[in-house]
Amino acid sequence: MKKRMFALLTAAVLLCGILTGCGGNPDAGSQSGTSGDSGSAVKDTLVVAVPDAPSYMDPQVQAAIATFRVTTQMFDRLVSLDNDMNLVPGLAESWDVIDDKTTVFHLRQGVKFHNGEEMTSEDVKYSLERCIASSGVNYNYLIIDTITCDDDYTVTITTKEPFNALLPRLTLDAASIICKSADSSPEEFNRHPVGAGPYKFVSWELGGDVVLEAFEDYYKGAPAVKRVIFRTIPEAINRSIGLETGEVDLAYDLGITDLESLAGNDKVTTLTTPSNTVWYLGMNVQKAPLDNVKVRQAIAYALNPQDYIDIVFSGEATLARNTMLPAGVEGYAPDTVTYDYNVETAKALLAEAGYPDGFATTLWCADSQVMRDSAVVIQEQLRQIGINAEVKTMEQGQYYSETGKGEQDLFIMSKTSIDPDSMLRAMYHTEAFGLSGNRSFWATPETDEMMDKASTTTDKAEALELYKQIQTIVAENVPLVPIAIEHLNAGMQSNVKGFGLYPGKSHYIYGTYFE
Amino acid sequence: MYKFILKRLVMLIPVLLGVSFIVFSILSFTPGDPVEMRLGENYSEEAYNAMREEMGLNDPFLVRYVKYIVDAVQGDFGTSYRTSNPVVEELAARLPNTILLSVVAMFFAILVGIPLGVISATHQYSAVDNVSMVGALFGVSMPNFWLGLMLIVIFASGLGWFPSSNFDSWKSIVLPAITLSVNSLAMITRMTRSSMLETIRQDYIRTARAKGLKESVITIKHALRNAMIPIVTTVGLQFGFSLGGAVLVETVFAWPGIGRLLVECIKLKDTPVVVACVLVLATMFSIINLCIDILYAFLDPRIRAQYKTAKR
Hints:
By secondary structure, chain A is an alpha+beta fold. Chain A is built from 15 helices and 19 strands.
């Protein structure tokens, strides 16, 4: 009996040993990535903490920030936007706009992919056609009609309709230029992605770190940081603690309350910048009494955006100045019509509209912290003018689909954009009714026409003038009230320099160095 | 004995069918659309319909469920909606991490819990007993995600002894394993104490003592052995629970295991991965319980005798 007990115990211990051994192996590879070690070796590994794990290494499967935050380091585009939203040359050295449908791109010569091959017009054509064929990312590119290779370094892109927002669209990660010969199959490419960006792929453990390595032949010059490790740390507090303990060198999307506590830490630097994400209160104009413009204006007057920002974002957000365009985006025309917080004006407008005592309605939001907080604040602000809004909270997927069908009255949502056309069209055009973005269901033939014209003219001054007029008209009709522009932030060790936040959220690591 | 094990393994089949059906139907009938989760805020109607068809979501619920089971029986658990990787690969990458965490946590709980329970019982109402019982009460009632955060604040952020969320040395397992083990540790301590208290009052213990045996021999060989059955039961259940508890702990410590995968995939309505995760956890829970039942036989000759009669 004693013997058997002993045997059993030994077996148990051995089993545990085996399991421990097996489990311990896969992480051995990332050991070199440990940061914060105060060794004599020159520090050249940057550990970046991100909140969500990437889903693919292929940028053309699905439009997801978590994926693009990694892929943007590996793939360059024909053109790109810098951190101040200026259009700068990328793999295309220059371009000529031939007419309102045709643009010719002159590619940089001698650009190498990570596998050593030279980039040619064939790769560009292949990449963009691949993007257009992928239903998860092609939303912005269906306007493209043909892509032709004139010679090895010249590509001509024509659009189906006259269109002038092609360049900003081509800066997006979905328009990444990939190496044609490396794409033997989608699975293979996802495992071994090859681009022409500053970092090349090394490894990606499922559920673990993504490791990238500097591409020494990068056409803008070899990156200073030789190794980048993206580590998924879901909890915001853990990313801050990681900065404090030195486990991570750079952390994206810190909690707003953590920013305050990190401010007193001189080992850590934090950075904030307005994003391109604008939060708004939408109103379904197909439903009474929101079909009455006076009621909508009353609601706009009743909102106090500064209070909203102070409560929902702890002050860390910028006022949206009566336009859905974020500052920095071309065509930005703030305060063409203003609705300064004024309860009396709001009440007067409501009375004029025939609702002196207000009315009851519903306020829809999805089940996220920001949306729930927003709903409570807005509910209270509307109560001041007698509007009794019942908050309806639902799960995110359901929220997007129900509001797309037009079931809602008032609703809270946000929209991100880098060019005036994609923002204004999604918010105010007839063709975007429902799921495509126009959940207020407000549109006029006049504004539709102006948007179409603004997006097709090659006369920049005319386009800007049209965008200004559109922003004025929609601000007068207020089918939705722009409230706040969300801020992006990141924290880093104080020896990390040169890093900047990109308003589109997929920040570039290139240019970062250790001091 | 073998027949008994076989019978138990066969009984696993209806259990797994039931579990998969429940999880599958919950995910199908709760609001939220995996297609939308995949496409985001803006997409065209055509893209939506094409994606829906591609994902096979247009079939009726029962057809999808039966299809899933038929494939699963052949070892094909489908591909993840989120990453398009085979589910088996996704799970295989994380399962060892979760097992490692649970095993270390249980090891710690057993190595500390049983001796503490024994001492508390043999020295009833002593300082050790009082302290450990208050501690156990604390451990049972404390939510482990909170404890995890507190440990991070104290030992990672404050003292800097351990990493808060890293995965590259033995140090990284210390905090999550302690967090995960506290609950089980408390339960095991309490169960050991009460079970021991019962046995040390038995007549045969008095007999052993009258024979002049050493106190340590009496405690370990005569009392503990007989008190073992409820303790082993608790250990088994706690082991099972610790696999589930890993869901919270793994999220708090960014531990790349099955628990975190499950949370991520529930958020994104990645049905194939969620169902497979739950199936794996249910299977492990059942197998652990089976092992416990077998252990009874080694511990208690009477139970062993029953297994033998059942064989006939």
